[in-house]
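Attaching the record inline, Q. Sequence:
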Amino acid sequence: MSITNIDYKYLREKLKAQYFVQWVTEWDDNNHILRMKGSCVRNNKTGETVFYHKDYEVCQKVADMLNEEEEHNKC
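Structure, as predicted:
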């Protein structure tokens, strides 16, 4: 999925998920720019960060696995 080609069905499924991926950034005071440091997986219910990695794809796979596990644990 890219910014220019949004699949809204996919997006709605992701918004219902318990775990999601978020960018981690830092502000560079000297150059006045925002830098992306990596990504993290966060719990949608508690806001807790459960995993951090520099690669977005790795975080997305972890979030997918956690969400899949959560689906299997529902009664």
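The helical segments are 8-16, 56-73. The mean pLDDT is 85.

More tomorrow.
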